[in-house]
From TrEMBL, chain A:
<keyword id="KW-0732">Signal</keyword>
<dbReference type="InterPro" id="IPR028082">
    <property type="entry name" value="Peripla_BP_I"/>
</dbReference>
<comment type="similarity">
    <text>Belongs to the bacterial solute-binding protein 2 family.</text>
</comment>
<dbReference type="InterPro" id="IPR025997">
    <property type="entry name" value="SBP_2_dom"/>
</dbReference>
<feature type="domain" description="Periplasmic binding protein">
    <location>
        <begin position="37"/>
        <end position="287"/>
    </location>
</feature>
<dbReference type="Pfam" id="PF13407">
    <property type="entry name" value="Peripla_BP_4"/>
</dbReference>
<protein>
    <submittedName>
        <fullName>D-threitol-binding protein</fullName>
    </submittedName>
</protein>
Automatic annotation (TrEMBL), chain B:
<keyword id="KW-0812">Transmembrane</keyword>
<dbReference type="Pfam" id="PF02653">
    <property type="entry name" value="BPD_transp_2"/>
</dbReference>
<keyword id="KW-0813">Transport</keyword>
<keyword id="KW-1133">Transmembrane helix</keyword>
<feature type="transmembrane region" description="Helical">
    <location>
        <begin position="69"/>
        <end position="86"/>
    </location>
</feature>
<feature type="transmembrane region" description="Helical">
    <location>
        <begin position="247"/>
        <end position="280"/>
    </location>
</feature>
<feature type="transmembrane region" description="Helical">
    <location>
        <begin position="120"/>
        <end position="140"/>
    </location>
</feature>
From TrEMBL, chain C:
<dbReference type="InterPro" id="IPR003593">
    <property type="entry name" value="AAA+_ATPase"/>
</dbReference>
<dbReference type="InterPro" id="IPR027417">
    <property type="entry name" value="P-loop_NTPase"/>
</dbReference>
<dbReference type="GO" id="GO:0005524">
    <property type="term" value="F:ATP binding"/>
</dbReference>
<keyword id="KW-0762">Sugar transport</keyword>
<dbReference type="InterPro" id="IPR017871">
    <property type="entry name" value="ABC_transporter-like_CS"/>
</dbReference>
<keyword id="KW-0472">Membrane</keyword>
<keyword id="KW-0547">Nucleotide-binding</keyword>
Length: 310, 315, 500
């Protein structure tokens, strides 16, 4: 019993200490409140988007409540439900899954609260979409590879988590380019689960199988791309194999600058974050807004990497 | 029951896992010429090293009748801590190493302390510290990977000595030390006693709490070694690294013959268990098996190995 | 042979070449209690398993009510009327008494039994169970959950289950091993009632006095062979033992010539709330002090406090005249107190470890070099102990679970002795140990005393207490009611104080 009371005290103390995302500030009724649920705050890119949303919200004097769905679509739907219950003025959702996060969109639409999908899509149509077309990122990356190889060579593709929207779209884009370049041969494709260590192990095993036959690797994200670079360097093959990946995380930019990673595809986290808030505010105020804000990808190579390094 | 009756089966069962491992290797050697090359074997060794270190730690824990679910989180915390001090031209190499190992030691000792003092089952305690650890890793790293580490630090994960990857050297040394602790020290003997029959161990004058404290602390240190190795291998301290590692480590220990009810288990068995898992995932990549099938095949082989191992182990 | 309900002729059974049963015969009369005796490994349990259809015999026949039982399985023999009450009672704790009695014979509304999707109707089985229990004179509600019953009550329910099955033969395997003396009396009354109703009982037990009190006929097995069948009145304890062991054991309890030396342990006003209070006695070097009393009198509880497994609430313990605080077994061992628990499996052995590892477990401090184990010293000590205690084992690396009960007990004693105590508490040291090994343990205890060890002996067997102890502390419901010398103690006197 004593322990139970003690435990409760500690828990309460901890909770009050950690309560950073303050609750809806009552009193100043004029201020707009926007609720945001993010795919995962353990993902660097998402954290960057979220940071920019935070900054933009401050600039526009909007209250932003950010919650982490921890990659669970179920949790995300529940979070949107509680946003609706709190009566927020707009919702920004960074969907966990194409299908499973869709109910959240329908709920918000039914409650007449504008909902903006950021970064990735759901099958249900939201009020607006802010993001980039993942298919395009893979097209850019593969086109770069094809060009570098002169349209001929052996390619390995490292997938993200199988079945996720980003993986499916990047795969579609990559396969399109592959079809257009019959000289490119797909040696093998396998998932590295977005993870650097897994990407590294997978590349090590590939090197065992195919050795010097490998001409290029396309990784669905930079984490795996960095893992591939590490494995190739260790095997002394880096200068023979071209590696391209997507996201342009700081690590990858550094690697491009050093020349170990040949190219990465810049997905503009800042633009996505700020446009998401802007669109949400416009929708909440019933002003005119674009239903689809597509932020273009940019190819980052050694030549232009300086623009992206801060 | 009478020992003569199923002696043959018991003997077979004792070596079942080794047999399973051997059969698998032979099959692989014939199905892909790439498997039995020195370079591939070294790569398997390197890939296995992190899981093996964790599996050694959790073997101690399971022998005493406990469980540790916080392994993966400890990997993340210790990796982040080590990376924080491993930037080039800041501290000498010893600092990130000692900081990482120290973090693992403290984390493990905390597990042990709560388990012995609170009498809450280890499953629950370490389930809690698993989440705490993940949170700590995110707090310490502010949710972002810590990169730009010194070359000397990265050598731990990627360097070679006489052509042997450094992680393999760490793996071998850790294996020897762990096997010696388990078989040759009083502490090791007491671990078996505590797991075999805790009340009887206490009645034999063993300080059961002390034994458990040590076991969880050692497990923490081994997890820290895993965390440092991982960080140096991917040259980044990642707060979300190591998720799910505990399951692979526990699987290795159990495949290797460690009984979940405590009191039995060997380091050699665990090493074979870890190698088995490593060989399977390596060879499935070599054979270019689609990832959907990989998971099914992995599950089937794991159950198969344990079934083969389970013969005659009824008592 | 008119009245034989069950006849077993020339039964043989072997396991991978080893004959477990070799031409065993048995004739069971209607309404008799037939004791089956033999040391552990004599073939009793194999015989029983064949009888109830769990094992098929290699040769021989079993005739029950004039019909051959050949090829029957357990379910069929049960239906025909042979039931067995197992030593480890097989019940489902979460089910009620009635549900346990009718387990496997559930009544469903549709009347079909054994159909998994039947709709259960417990009213009928509750009624029937109540009848059977009343008939047996047992006062338990059929709706009580099994887990709330005492071991003795569970046994009664098992018997009720057999009766409700229309059992004509009931086999009881060590039915008194876990129940109190008073409950034994209840059981015996029930057995006599069953006899009067014409039910035959096959009774297996190690306890000599019980056998002579309850049985009409005694059959002895040894090494799987049939040795003989006698009327109980034709035998006495010594002749029965020699039939079982195959040789004259001579005197069961070795004579002692104990010169009492300095005081080792004394307890003063020792008490623990709800368990015992005001206990006062001393033990001297070379002396055996018996602790006697009925089950629940507080014997084991006192031992646990002296050994530091539990805490006392009042009084004090002195070792060699100095007051000590004993709050853990480690502290007790450091003070030279060793404890051989009655609960050999729970508190004595580590079943998964070898003989050697068990024996040296309490004395690792003398078998170490720094943090490492000194294997050589450990092996020498173990070999010595195996020789001294005459432990029968294939080697010191044999797992303890493969040893017989008596040898396991010796391993536990060896472990405690290696910790080099000056006082050893033996709690029911011969429970579950067969006659031959019992005698050896008695000799061992006597030897230890002669070499100056102080000994506290706890036993529920009065002959054991009387035969071994120099002085006897008698307990009743947690109070010390007498401290008797060897000369004045008799069975009657102890019983008188034990129920005082």
């Amino acid at each position: 019993m004593k322990n139970a009371i003690f435990g409760t005290l500690i828990a309460t103390a901890l909770l009050s200490g950690c309560n950073q995302t303050s609750e809806k500030g009552s009193g100043d009724g004029e201020k707009l409140v926007v609720g945001a649920t993010m795919l995962s705050m353990q993902n660097e890119f998402i954290v960057n988007v979220s940071d920019e949303m935070e900054a933009k919200a401050k600039e526009l004097d909007v209250d932003l409540i950010t919650v982490d769905a921890e990659r669970s679509a179920l949790k995300q739907v529940e979070q949107v439900e509680s946003f609706i219950a709190q009566g927020v003025d707009a919702i920004i959702m960074n969907p966990c899954e194409v299908e499973a996060s869709s109910p959240a969109v329908k709920l918000a639409m039914a409650a007449n609260i504008p909902i903006i999908n950021v970064n990735s899509e759901t099958s249900a149509k939201p009020t607006a979409f802010v993001g980039s077309d993942d298919t395009e990122s893979a097209r850019i990356a593969m086109k770069y590879l094809a060009e570098k190889l002169g349209g001929k060579g052996n390619i390995l593709i490292m997938h993200g988590f199988m079945g996720q929207a980003a993986q499916l779209k990047r795969d579609n884009g990559a396969k399109e380019i592959l079809k257009a370049n019959p000289g490119l041969k797909l040696l093998a494709e396998q998932t590295g689960e977005w993870d650097r260590a897994k990407g590294m192990s997978l590349t090590e095993n590939w090197i065992q199988s195919y050795g010097s036959k490998i001409n290029a690797i396309f990784a669905h994200n930079d984490e795996m791309g960095m893992g591939a670079v590490k494995a190739l360097e260790a095997a002394g093959l880096k200068n023979k194999v071209i590696v391209v990946s997507v996201d342009a995380i700081p690590d990858a930019l550094q690697a491009v600058k050093k020349g170990t990673l040949d190219a990465t595809i810049f997905q503009n986290a800042k633009e996505q974050g700020s446009k998401a808030i802007e669109t949400a505010v416009k929708a909440a105020k019933k002003e005119a807004f674009d239903k689809e804000v597509l932020i273009p990808f940019q190819l980052v190579t050694k030549e232009n990497v300086g623009e992206f390094l801060k | 029951m009478p020992p003569t009756q199923n002696l043959r089966l018991t003997k077979f069962g004792q070596y079942g896992i080794y047999l399973a491992f051997l059969i698998l290797c032979i099959v692989l050697a014939f199905s892909t010429p790439r498997f039995f090359t020195v370079s591939n074997l070294l790569i398997i060794g390197t890939q296995v090293s992190i899981n093996a270190l964790l599996a050694f730690g959790v073997t101690f824990v399971i022998i005493t009748g406990g469980i540790d679910l916080s392994l993966g989180s400890m990997v993340a915390v210790t990796g982040v801590v080590a990376a924080t001090f491993a930037h080039p031209d800041t501290y000498p190499l010893a600092v990130p190493l000692l900081a990482g190992l120290g973090a693992g030691l403290l984390f493990g000792a905390f597990n042990g302390l709560v388990i012995t003092k609170s009498k809450v089952p280890p499953f629950i305690v370490t389930l809690g510290t698993m989440t705490i650890g993940r949170g700590l890793a995110l707090i310490l790293s502010k949710g972002r990977p810590i990169s730009n580490l010194s070359d000397s630090f990265n050598f731990i994960g990627g360097g070679n000595i006489f052509g042997i990857p450094f992680p393999i050297i760490i793996l071998i040394v850790a294996f020897i030390v762990c096997a010696v602790i388990l078989n040759k020290t009083v502490l090791g003997r007491y671990m078996y006693a505590v797991g075999g029959n805790e009340p009887a161990a206490r009645a034999s004058g063993i300080r059961v709490g002390n034994v458990k404290m040590w076991v969880y602390t050692i497990c923490g240190i081994l997890s820290a070694m895993g965390g440092i190795l991982l960080t140096a291998r991917i040259t980044t301290g990642q707060p979300n690294a190591g998720a799910g590692f505990e399951l692979d480590a526990i699987a290795a220990a159990i495949i290797g013959g460690t009984s979940t009810s405590g009191g039995t288990g060997t380091m050699t068995g665990t090493l074979i268990g870890a190698l088995l898992i490593g060989v399977i995932s390596n060879s499935l990549d070599l054979l270019n098996v689609t990832s959907y099938y990989q998971q099914v095949v992995m599950g089937v082989i794991i159950i198969g190995a344990v079934v083969l191992d389970g013969f005659g182990k009824k008592d | 042979m008119p009245d034989f309900i069950l006849t077993v002729n020339q039964l043989s059974k072997s396991f991978s070449g080893v004959k477990a049963l070799d031409n065993v015969s048995l004739n069971l009369r209607k309404g008799e209690v037939h004791a089956l005796m033999g040391e552990n490994g004599a073939g009793k349990s194999t015989f029983m398993k064949v009888l109830i259809g769990l094992l098929a015999p290699d040769s021989g026949e079993i005739i029950f009510e004039g019909k051959n039982l050949h090829d029957s399985n357990v379910g069929e023999t049960l239906k025909k009327g042979i039931s067995m009450i197992h030593q480890e009672i097989l019940i489902v704790p979460e089910l009620t008494v009635a549900q346990n009695i009718f387990l496997g014979r559930e009544k469903s509304v549709s009347g079909k039994s054994g159909w998994l999707w039947g709709w259960l109707d417990d009213s009928e089985i509750n009624e029937k169970s109540e009848q059977v229990l009343k008939q047996l004179g047992v006062d338990i509600s059929p709706k009580t959950k099994m887990k709330y019953l005492s071991v003795a009550q569970m046994q009664m329910v098992e018997i009720a289950k057999a009766i409700s099955n229309n059992a004509k033969v009931i086999i009881m395997d060590e039915p008194t091993s876990a129940i109190s003396d008073k409950e034994v009396e209840m059981l015996f009354k029930m057995i006599r009632d069953l006899k009067a109703k014409g039910v035959s009982i096959i009774y297996i037990s190690h306890k000599m006095d019980e056998i002579f009190r309850i049985s009409d006929t005694i059959t002895v097995l040894r090494d799987g062979k049939y040795i003989g069948t006698k009327n109980a009145t034709e035998l006495d304890q010594n002749s029965l033992i020699s039939m079982m062991v195959g040789r004259e054991i001579g005197q069961m309890f070795p004579e002692g010539n104990t010169a009492i030396n300095e005081e080792i342990l004394s307890v003063e006003n020792l008490g623990k709330k709800g368990k015992f209070s005001d206990i006062n006695f001393a033990v001297h070097a070379g002396e055996i002090v018996g602790l006697s009393g009925l089950m629940g009198a507080g014997r084991t509880e006192i031992a646990r406090v002296i050994f530091g497994l539990d805490k006392s609430d009042e009084g004090m313990i002195s070792i060699s005249g100095e007051t000590v605080q004993i709050n853990s077994p480690l502290k007790a061992l450091k003070n030279g107190i060793g404890y051989v628990s009655e609960d050999r499996k729970g508190l004595g052995l580590i079943p998964k470890m070898s003989v050697k590892d068990n024996i040296t477990l309490s004395s690792m401090n003398r078998h170490r070099k720094g943090i490492f184990i000194n294997t050589k010293r450990e092996e020498t000590a173990t070999a010595q102990m195996i020789a001294d205690l005459r432990i029968k084992t294939s080697g010191m690396d044999q797992k303890v679970t493969h040893l017989s009960g008596g040898n396991q007990q010796k391993v536990v004693i060896g472990k405690v002795l290696l910790a080099a105590p000056q006082l050893i508490i033996l709690d029911e040291p011969t429970r579950g140990v067969d006659v031959g090994a019992k005698f050896e343990i008695y000799k061992l205890i006597r030897n230890l005393a002669e070499n100056g060890m102080a000994i506290i002996l706890i036993s529920s067997e009065l002959p054991e207490i009387l035969g071994m102890s120099d002085r006897i502390v008698v307990l009743s419901k947690g109070r010390q009611t007498a401290l008797l010398s060897r000369q004045e103690a008799t069975q009657e006197l102890i019983m008188k104080y034990a129920v005082a």
